[in-house]
Prior knowledge:
Rossmann fold
Amino acid sequence: MRIAVIGTGYVGLVSGVCFSDFGHDVVCVDKDPAKIEKLERGEVPIYEPGLDDLMARNVEAGRLTFTGDLKAAMAGAQAIFIAVGTPTRRGDGHADLTYVMAAAEEIARNLTDYAVIVTKSTVPVGTNRQVKQTIAKANPDADFDVASNPEFLREGAAIDDFMKPDRVVVGVQNERAAEVMNEIYRPLYLRDFPIVITDLESAEMIKYAANAFLATKITFINEIAALCEKLGADVKEVSRGMGLDGRIGNKFLHAGPGYGGSCFPKDTSALARIGQEHASPMRITETVIEVNEAIKRRMIDKVVDLCDGSLNGKTIAVLGVTFKPNTDDMREATALTIVPALVGGGARVRVVDPQGQREGEALLPGVHWLDDPYKATQNADAVVLLTEWNEFRALDLKRIANRMASPRMADLRNVYSARDAKRAGFAKYEAVGR
């Protein structure tokens, strides 16, 4: 099949590359000429393990191309995917559909043959019907259907998630569109991965409901962690005991400094707003958002307490600032709350992150970037482990403690233990919920 993908951001590029690896003829479209030139040179503008090799292989095979010309990309395409950004709208917390609707209007101007217009971006319930109305109004003679195909890609594991999904969700209005979508995902169907065919509204809601539930799970265990600290319990043991219950499961039960990233903050905010607009308040989701912000502030208090109540003049090494490991994404990262608070409190902050500096330099002014955790902790008064990159999971704690002016650690991802830290020579060790 021939597929056009509008948008070469995280979702669009990963989807386009993976569709081409299924054997489809894929054209990825973007309005940014610099980005297209970069992709044509074989350079990947985002960090996602394995994406560069997969992209190069499919470009070489002739199945994957890049262009800024939407009309040319749409020629002969049976499916056109909209994979543009839907950032949180300022002022009301709703998803901003400006880019989605602009893409729909441009599709309408260039649509000559039947195609399924597929929304891959995360959008509020009812958006696909709006897309259909927009296209039909701009081009009354257009022959097309719309489909909702939300993505469930974890940054750092996106290729595996696309190629080995828990499920593929497709919302359609008729059998004709369903047949096109089934053909696109036929390689997964043949390998017995579940394809959920449903209506437009249910598909749109599945995405929001899934992310809100996962955010709730994270926030719940973080609240339990705070109580564990008061009562002397160990949240890692509590999580393990809970997670062995098949009804609960062990995923997303790891206490830490709160959730961040490109999906959970945006999608929980949008779902809360949708509920308010339809007089059906999402009270659990609203509370999750509020509690998650409080958790970030509690992490700041932990670091201040670790430094005897004052950050002023202290040198603090921060290990990891991306919102999770194996990505360069800084969107809504907890570091964007915690690190500025350290700087604002008068601390001299050194940062080490394997992929975060490119975005982080503009987002975290006033910090000093280093590429070695041992250099960053030299003569430091405290070390804060904020993102659990593999590079930080097997540190020589004794070597670090011996180099520090005051060996203190805030392990906000529970990578180590108080016993490990004490044996290594740390005078103080703070974890989450332990």
